[in-house]
Design brief:
Elements (H helix, E strand, L loop, with lengths): L3 H20 L3 E2 L10 H24 L10 H25 L3 E2 L5 E2 L2 E2 H24 L1
Helix pairs in contact: 1-2, 1-4, 2-3, 3-4
């Protein structure tokens, strides 16, 4: 059986990759990054790391890295809230370091881009939900 953590990484990566590719038009300033991978692929890999950060943080309280296999509604709500807080941190950090800026098309909430706030708030619990559904299906 494939590790639930590997499945979670793949699901999370694919969801974030689609989101990042569709929403990259809301950003500017990333063009100065000269890395080898397209910026939306790099961002998606970072999003997977933040997903695992959330899983590990909760694992300290649950006692298992695969706690999410028995997740209930309150766990998904907790993941959504944690995803929101992670996004706020990442966006404020990026603004302070001038990693990117928003275009005029980016809707704002709390002075931050709405897209990344929704991304982590929605995709973090959705990644876990889809992972559990896939594991139960397999």
């Amino acid at each position: 059986m494939t590790s639930p953590l590997i499945i979670l990484a793949l699901v999370s990566f694919l969801l974030h990759l689609v989101w990042e590719a569709l929403h990259i038009r809301f950003y500017t300033g990333y063009e100065k990054m000269k890395e080898r991978l397209p910026v939306f692929v790099q961002a998606s890999l970072g999003d997977v790391l933040y997903t695992f950060l959330a899983i590990v943080l909760i694992a300290f309280f649950e006692g298992s890295l695969t706690w999410f296999l028995a997740a209930d509604a309150s766990d998904f709500l907790g993941l959504a809230l944690l995803g929101f807080y992670i996004a706020v941190f990442v966006e404020y950090k990026a603004a302070a370091l001038k990693r990117w800026e928003y275009t005029g098309a980016m809707p704002r909430f709390l002075g931050l881009g709405l897209s990344p706030l929704l991304q982590m708030t929605v995709l973090l619990p959705l990644s876990v939900y889809i992972t559990v559904a896939l594991i139960n299906w397999l």
